Amino acid sequence: MEATFFDQVGGHAFFQRLVSNFYVEIEIDELLRPMYPEDLTESKRHFELFLEQYWGGPKSYSEERGHPRLRMRHAPFRINRAARDAWLAAMSKALERERPVLSDEQFNELHGYFDMAAHQMRNV
To answer: Which of 25, 40, 41, 77 could link 90 by a cystine bridge, Cβ 3.0 to 4.6 Å?
Structure first.
């Protein structure tokens, strides 16, 4: 049986680092930080669970929170081009920190996904 992308990149440890690195950027971003709750603990956990499930890991996200419904969950926030670009910049920095453990193909697949997802979340 072929390993999932989740397994290929290092499983839980990889996504935990990626999300942690991403939130380091969120915490200092003047545009994005106000869109998040003061305590980022649950936001980090939900994002980690979502990414792990999306990339072939445990189904914990759906078991706990149901269908992802990303556009609906992001609807309360004003996501314009600037917010999308800021989010992508934060994720790109987080992804760059993980580059040494990723093949070029894995890096490009992740980057492509985040780019597509960020564009889909725009609602303004």
So the answer is: 25
